[in-house]
Amino acid sequence: MRITSLVENTSRRGLPVEHGLSLYIQLEDGRNVLFDMGQSGLFAQNAEQLELSLKDVDIAIISHGHYDHGGGLSTFLEQNHKAKVYLHTEAFEGHYSRRETGLRYIGLDTELADNARLVFCTGTTCIAPGLTLFSSVGGNCLLPHGNRLLFGPDKTTNDCFCHEQNLIIQEGKETVLLAGCAHSGIINIVRKATELIGNAPSYVLAGMHLVKSGLNEQEEDKFISQLTKELKAYSSTQFLTMHCTGEEAYSKLRKLMGNQIEYLSCGDNVGINSIENNLKIRRTRHEDIPRLHEIFAIARNFMAETGNPNQWAPDYPSKELLQQDIKSGDSYVVLRRDEIVATFVLRGGIDPTYNTIFEGAWLNDLPYATIHRIASSGEVKGMLHLAMQFALLQYDNIRIDTHADNQVMQNAIKKEGFEYCGIIHCWNGSERLAYQFSNK
């Protein structure tokens, strides 16, 4: 399973953003699920940019009746002609938010309520094999204080969020819980999911609606501390949060929870129970060199077959160069079931060939690392993505270059959020297209 954020409040990959949420879920059996649609057609624009087809979505879900989760419904219905869209029976009721200027309607477009492809749910509903929606979440544990500003179905009644539904995905040994905003309280939702599943979810992806709490700093810190204690009780669960959690609250949670919680920005994706989780990365050893020669030969042949015969010479990289990379500790191999399937170089510090850049400029002059000599046996896809995930654990700025004829790598580089910066010259004087990714 792979889950990609099409819309979220922030982006580390340079994609346009808005206040909202949309997640594209690719299941191992080939089905595609769309969870929420943001507040506009932006999710469709970003899907195209990320090469994810809305036409291929088999099932769509709107988590609750707020515009920032279902505002893109009309766009979805226009671009996809087959998927049913699952909503709660009360999703189209009136929903309002108190602003400084008064109450504002934040509900869905009621003109779409009679569309024949909408399926209305309540309670617990299995909508497809491995996919279960549930609502009617009880409990009062750590309810979001921001709920006080939300009203419905009329303008004088605080919203009880009966229209909020959550998704459980069960695939193989993994169970994933998705919640749009967790207005019913993330702990209450996880407890209900645990009750339905029979054990705690492997992963929880959720906005937690910690923004606009109205609490002072001391009260806010106390609330976050209590929430952390409850979340950490699910010691086997990995949390990924986003959207209405807010960056400030996330920073506090991250400080208290460490790697048990991550942030999923627009354009980010996470692999769950996928082949990526069965891969390991380690530093290259001298005894690996014969296998690396095999992999580089496969890579050179692939380059030639895809219109890029000139980037690597027949003897590139030489045994001596591979030995240098190993000695410096910058060479890595990717293993699947103890077999080497790919290799790359990740080198921190100044790369002399990057000191001068033509017809452009680097994004910044901050410390960086460089990815070089990435090659795969072809048995496993997405090696640049894996190398990037590995690199970003250590560095905020990543640079990379490729040949002008290497369209495959150029597309992969752009997909990872790199920005084109200009042209650099290699040690032999040949030109390369240069890119940089920056979290700063």
Helix-strand layout with pairing:
Elements: E1 2-7, E2 22-26, E3 32-35, H1 42-49, E4 59-61, H2 67-70, H3 73-79, E5 84-88, E6 96-99, E7 102-105, E8 118-121, E9 124-128, E10 131-134, E11 150-151, E12 166-171, E13 174-179, H4 186-197, E14 203-206, H5 217-232, E15 238-241, H6 247-257, E16 261-263, E17 269-271, E18 279-283, H7 289-305, H8 319-328, E19 331-336, E20 339-348, E21 369-376, H9 383-392, E22 397-402, H10 407-415, E23 419-425, E24 431-438
Helix pairs in contact: 5-6
Residue runs with pLDDT of under 50 for 5 or more positions: none
Number of strands: 24
What Rg, in angstroms, do the CA atoms define?
Answer: 24 Å
Largest sheet: 7 strands, mixed
The general outline is elongated
DSSP helical segment count? 10
Structural class: alpha/beta
How much of the sequence lies in strands comes to 25-35%
The chain-level mean pLDDT equals 94
The helical percent reads: 10-25%
* Termini Cα gap: 30 Å
**Strand order within the widest beta sheet:** 8-5-4-3-2-1-17
